[in-house]
């Protein structure tokens, strides 16, 4: 199996459908189907079962996965190493971050980067999912959790904090909750439990047991928008929420710290354009007030 076919095989295995694989690879769905049929014919084995739920690897397909993933790892490593000796301040750099971080920190950083290095093109992905740097889904990532992989370099950016906030309109209607009441008589906005499975049923150390959950959201930006719209009390980063005049901080002495990390693969640490983007992000975080 050559590398082109290996990429198609992995895309089908990960997406579970021909359409999903085609979208990942940005090729025609019919081409994916033809290439899969050709692979199975040349190998003399069925690689996937076609089920109503999608394509499921057969025992032969399971055997192929390990070998093909090794091919992928070798190809990715070669590409990273070639990039690692690239001293040109031009080309594409893929950056992954949450939407709130992108809006409030990365965008100002990218504005300055565009002036200093206009030949660098940033591909920004905002998602709650953690991008895989080893597979080059991103070259740089801004994360609130420090990764443990020995192949990744982590740089501490800043210790920040979250606090409790509500809109001025909400406070006029409902007042300020009493500490220790588990937010009785109040509405809260929280992250979706299906996405944040490790979420503790507290915000800024206060239980939400007596509160009404008015909305569950999937991103920090939507959490901030919901709180600003007066839908309920929410836990927001202080450096963002303090700049919004329509918000009121509740219990200013109550906060929860968290750390932000800049992460990149060790092979890309010497790539000029990656370092330029990393330096711009670091400079942007240096301007933030620490917790």
TrEMBL record:
- PROSITE patterns given in the database record: HTH_LYSR
* Stretches assigned to the HTH lysR-type domain: 1-58
Q: Does the keyword Protease apply?
A: no
Family stated for the protein in its record: Belongs to the LysR transcriptional regulatory family.
> Origin organism of this chain?
Herbaspirillum rhizosphaerae
Name used for this protein in its record: LysR family transcriptional regulator
What keywords would UniProt list here? DNA-binding, Transcription, Transcription regulation
One Pfam family hit: LysR_substrate
């Amino acid at each position: 199996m050559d590398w082109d076919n290996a990429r198609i095989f992995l895309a089908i295995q990960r997406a579970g459908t021909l359409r999903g694989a085609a979208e990942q690879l940005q090729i025609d769905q019919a081409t994916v189907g033809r290439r899969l049929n050709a692979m199975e014919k040349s190998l003399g084995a069925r690689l996937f079962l076609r089920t109503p739920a999608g394509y499921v690897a057969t025992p032969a397909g399971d055997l192929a996965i390990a070998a093909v993933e090794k091919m992928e790892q070798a190809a990715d490593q070669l590409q990273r190493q070639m990039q690692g000796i690239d001293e040109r301040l031009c080309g594409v750099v893929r950056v992954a971050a949450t939407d709130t971080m992108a809006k409030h920190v990365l965008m100002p950083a990218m504005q300055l980067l565009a002036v200093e290095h206009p030949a660098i093109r940033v591909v920004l992905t905002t998602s709650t999912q953690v991008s895989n740097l080893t597979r080059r889904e991103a070259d740089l990532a801004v994360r609130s959790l420090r990764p443990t992989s020995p192949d990744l370099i982590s740089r501490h950016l800043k210790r920040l904090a979250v606090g409790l906030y509500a809109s001025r309109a909400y406070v006029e209607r409902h007042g300020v909750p009493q500490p220790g009441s588990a937010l009785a008589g109040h509405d809260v906005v929280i992250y979706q439990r299906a996405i944040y499975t490790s979420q503790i049923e507290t915000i800024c150390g206060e239980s939400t047991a007596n509160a009404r959950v008015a909305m569950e959201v999937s991103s920090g930006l939507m959490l901030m928008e919901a709180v600003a719209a007066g839908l309920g009390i929410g836990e927001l980063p202080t450096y963002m929420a303090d700049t919004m005049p329509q918000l009121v901080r509740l219990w200013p002495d109550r906060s929860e710290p968290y750390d932000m990390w800049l992460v990149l693969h060790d092979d890309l640490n010497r790539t000029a354009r990656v370092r330029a983007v990393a330096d711009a992000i670091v400079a942007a975080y240096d301007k933030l007030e620490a917790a």
